[in-house]
Amino acid sequence: MAGHSKWANIQHRKGRQDAKRGKLWTKIIREVTVAARAGGADPDANPRLRLAWDKATAANMPKDNIMRAIQRGAGGADDANYEEIRYEGYGVGGAAVLIDCMTDNRQRTVSEVRHALTKHGGNLGQDGCVAFMFKHCGQFIFAPGISEEKVMDVALENGAEDVQTDEEGVIEVICEPGQYAALKQAFDTAGLNPEIHGVIMKALSEVQLQGDDAERMQKIIDILEGLDDVQEVYTTAVMDDTE
């Protein structure tokens, strides 16, 4: 990986997310509320709510906050009528970008997303222009030092699709989205704690960016992630540490 290791990039991204925890919590609460409204208040019977719950606990959100969001969604107390929209576009150097949003005002959201992309050299594309560059899957990433053999045994016994270990010892486990909850439970039971986990859109290829290109791409991602209506940003770009 150009400039920095995969592990350095993972830690860098986590650091940026921690710095924006307040906004992250607000977005997760919205996700929990919408999931509870759509499928009910029981995480065991509502896979989407289970995913949102896991995301909330991974972000160290207090259980009381999660429960209030569930009750608000299941009870229909939240007046906002959110719709889910995915925008596709390009960043610096032709890197693909997927932007998943929840919004109560589609015109506002598309305007903000378009501005975020164009401000630093990207552009908004048509539906389907880059989605084929990503795979919808469950992902678990384990820190160097975790037993590869133990992770592989649990993964392959519980429906994992692929297990890869890089030269630093970072272990990545991929599964079908529907297998994510069972695999996470299996890892929890085995005492294996992934550094990152979730159901994501995983880039099938990467665009390496360095220097000014990396800085501009990071600015695009930061602006997008800072938008209230944006839930997740996925990209094929791999960047130097742009601190």
Structural write-up:
With 243 residues, the protein is α+β, with helices and mostly antiparallel strands. It has a domain at 6-74: Integrase, N-terminal zinc-binding domain (Arc Repressor Mutant, subunit A). The protein is 44% helix and 23% strand. It has a 4-stranded antiparallel beta sheet. Helix 2 packs antiparallel against helix 3 (47-58), helix 2 (21-39) runs parallel beside helix 4 and helix 5 (106-119) runs antiparallel to helix 8. It is globular and about 45 Å long. The model has no long low-confidence stretch (mean pLDDT 90).
Key structural traits:
four-stranded antiparallel beta sheet; 243 residues; single chain; Arc Repressor Mutant, subunit A; 10 strands; 8 helices; globular; alpha+beta
Helices and strands, with pairings:
Elements lengths: L5 H14 L1 H19 L7 H12 L4 H12 L8 E8 L5 E8 L2 H14 L3 E2 L9 E9 L5 H10 L4 E4 L5 E5 L4 H10 L6 E8 L3 E3 L1 H16 L3 E6 L1 E3 L4
Helix pairs in contact: 2-3, 2-4, 5-8
